[in-house]
Amino acid sequence: MAAAGPGARAGAGAAGAAGAGRGSVHRPLAAALLAAALTAAPGARAAADSGPAATGRAAGGASAVLDGLKTYGQAVLRAGDGSVRQIPAGLYEMRVDGGGMLQTYGVGVAGYAQPQARYTESGWGGSLLAGNAEAGRIRWVLEHSYPQHNDLAGLAKAAGAGALTAESAAAGTQVAIWRLADGAQVEAADPAAELLADYLQREAGRLPEPPASLGLDPGRVSGPLTGPVGTRLGPLTVRTGAQSVSVTPDAAATAMGVRVVDAEGQPVTSAANGSRLYFEVPPGTPDGTASVTVHGSTKVPVGRVFTSGIPAEAQIVAGSSESAAAATATAVWPSPPAVPAGAVGQLAGAAEVATAAESVTAGPDSPDEEERLATSGSSAATPVIASLAVGLVVLGGMVVLLLRKRPLEGEDGEG
Q1: What is the distance between the alpha carbons of residues 318 and 335, in angstroms, rounded to a whole number?
Q2: Cα 62 to Cα 324: distance, rounded to the nearest angstrom
Q3: What CA–CA distance (Å, rounded) separates 297 from 246?
Q4: Using one digit for the tens of pLDDT, what is the confidence trace for 357-385?
């Protein structure tokens, strides 16, 4: 016993220290996992806030078929390879589905828009103008030249262009747009048209992007069905220049008993600019989706872009009659994901952590966020709690696995 005393005690002490060192792995590992769960919460919330229900507007507006180039002159294009060619430059016309006509200019000088091609209304971000610092100046040109400014004598006087015809005014305007849109080395063949192009390019100010002819904001809302009397998802805000638009839920929504209502819960069949619409989903409705479409007739704002799927062939609106437009938005109501029974309960203190997290996120949000979350069937705490649950489940499983391993060497020695 004596011989074994100091050496054994030293060995046992070393083994004990090693065992303590290994055993201490449990605590930092648990702490790391818990920290990961907590830091994931803001990220989950950010992802939720940037989802379709929080950003973006419904694809909507007018759709049309290109008739072709109608009022035009000629221009000379000098390409980067030194080649020179003559190209037509001027106003196109488009027939709007459901009724109406548009006058448009081409955005990209390299594109040759094809007659009978189909186009849909788009924002600048969905076209060649995305990120183009000159986009606002192009809209200014459209607002201050032909056909919006159809006093050709006055336009010619302002530009010092002598006399302008509809054809030379259209050609000069198109040349100015091409220069601003992509820096094209292009000149109008007609001297008066060239003077007009120079004047417009020189004088162009900056105007903001015009609104859609008709849209719903946002284009998608979602949330769990939590209330005993159903859930209202929304709001969807109508954006339009039309005096009134019709409101029509899709057949699937009607079959499920989903209604489109106003803030007071009254069914809505027509709306105006700024109206707020909600999907009212009955209790017990299974997971699903529904959509609503609004239809109206209005002038498409000057400066709106129409795209065909070929970027170089994009068109920009220079004039519009009363034209048919539509927009559609969607609601989604998934059931909350199931959490395995007892999974979180494996970790001591998990309930307290979740409760603390809930209390932290239960503070007042900004008015806009509070309204958006309340009406979409969610709360500010929902994504935080969900991410905490996932992290705690993983943490609980890891702790259980560690505790079930064979006893450490230091623990055997002490036993």
Answers
A1: 47
A2: 6
A3: 10
A4: 333 333 333 334 434 433 344 444 444 44
pLDDT value, residue 284: 85
Spans of the chain, pLDDT less than 70: 1-59, 226-230, 335-415
Inter-residue contact 98 to 322 (CB < 8 Å): no
Enter the tokens of residue 221.
């809302």
Return the percentage of the chain with pLDDT > 90, whole number.
58
Q: Which long-range contacts (CB under 8 A, 24 or more apart) does 320-323 make?
A: 320/100, 320/101, 320/102, 320/103, 321/100, 321/101, 321/102, 322/99, 322/100, 322/297, 322/298, 323/62, 323/64, 323/96, 323/98, 323/99, 323/100, 323/101, 323/102, 323/213, 323/297, 323/298, 323/299
Q: Specify the pLDDT at position 397.
A: 55
Is residue 303 classed exposed, middle or buried when 0-12, 13-18 and 19+ CB atoms within 10 A define those classes? Answer: buried
Q: Which two tokens stand for residue 51?
A: 């989802």
113 by Cβ neighbours in 10 Å (0-12 / 13-18 / 19+) ranks as: buried
Which residues partner with 128 through β-bridges?
Answer: none
Task: Give SS3 for 152.
Answer: helix
> How much is the pLDDT for 110?
75
- Taking the C-alpha atoms of residue 47 and residue 276, their distance in angstroms, rounded to an integer, is 25
Question: Rounded to an integer, what is the distance from CA 43 to the centroid of its chain?
Answer: 19
User: Whose CA is closest to 210, among 299, 308, 292, 105?
Assistant: 299
What residues does each domain of the chain span? 21-50+341-414, 60-203, 214-300+322-333
Look up residue 253 and give its two tokens: 């929504």
Percent residues over pLDDT 70 in the chain: 65
Cα–Cα distance, 225 to 43 (Å, whole number): 24
Residue 30 in tokens: 């648990």
This prediction has a pTM of 0.68
Helix, strand or coil, per DSSP, at residue 170: helix
Looking at CATH, the fold of the domain delimited by 214-300+322-333 is given as: Immunoglobulin-like (2.60.40)
Alpha helices in 145-296 (DSSP H): 152-159, 166-182, 191-203, 251-256
Q: Taking a C-beta distance cutoff of 8 angstroms, is the pair 38, 388 a contact?
A: yes
